[in-house]
Design goal:
The chain is an alpha/beta fold. The chain has helices at residues 29-42, 111-114, 134-144, 153-163, 187-206, and strands spanning 4-9, 18-23, 48-56, 66-74, 78-81, 84-87, 106-107, 121-126, 148-150, 167-176. It has a single domain, classed as Rossmann fold (3-Layer(aba) Sandwich). It has a five-stranded mixed β-barrel with strand order 3-9-8-4-10. Strands 1-2 form a two-stranded antiparallel ribbon.
Length: 209
């Protein structure tokens, strides 16, 4: 269930007061899309920050690393047939530039404005089934060349893109995609790192240089 908690922040230096609202979307595309739509309709935020963890396809982004997602792709919306993967664009079920898509991608046009910490900008892919098979990993890499994988990122990019609401998606790497040995995951470090970055970003928004 989504949860909300508001903090009113007031300043005496002439800066504009604002409210920070914490919002829990749930797991996966369906829950997140509905939850984000509700948030945007009811709260009408000026900026949405999504903070979470992700799996990494790329050794350049090892566990513990914090990144920002510049564009999202749908990784398991389509059909696997004749040994190949066809997404909704390949099938002609969606046009590659139908809003909010841009050449099949859900890009973030506000990234330059809000990546105030200059985090590495990566391509993300959103899936509903965690990727574990070597063959499937290879297919996703060959077709989309993603750096990270999550279960909710595209929901933010899609809904915020439709409502034209600024957003930024921050992810800390918890594991490499396909690694099922949880002893090799860095969950605690990833959560701590993304929380630290989130606080730094909010502070930067409050008191820009």
């Amino acid at each position: 269930m989504p949860s909300f908690h508001g903090i009113d922040s007031h300043y005496t230096d002439g800066s504009k007061p604002f409210t920070v609202v914490f919002h829990q979307t749930g797991v996966g595309l369906l829950s997140s899309a509905v939850s984000f739509t509700r948030l945007m309709l009811e709260q009408k935020p000026d900026l949405v920050i999504q903070a979470g963890i992700a799996g990494s396809f790329d050794s350049s982004f090892p566990p513990g690393k914090v990144v920002v997602v510049k564009e999202e792709l749908l990784g398991d919306t389509g059909v696997e047939e004749d040994g190949s993967w066809k997404d909704i664009f390949d099938l002609g079920l969606e046009q590659i530039n139908n809003v909010p898509f841009q050449n099949k991608k859900l890009t973030n046009p506000w990234l330059q404005q809000y990546n105030l910490l200059k985090l590495p900008e990566v391509t993300g892919i959103t899936i509903n089934e965690i990727t574990t098979r070597t063959e499937r990993i290879h297919t996703l890499q060959q077709k989309y060349n993603p750096a990270v994988e999550s279960m909710e990122g595209a929901a933010l990019h899609y809904t915020a893109g439709l409502w034209n609401i600024p957003f930024i998606q921050i992810r800390a790497i918890s594991n490499y995609v396909g690694e099922r040995d949880k002893s090799k995951w860095h969950m605690k470090e990833a959560v701590e790192n993304v929380n630290s970055v989130l606080l730094l970003l909010i502070q930067k928004l409050i008191q820009p240089d």
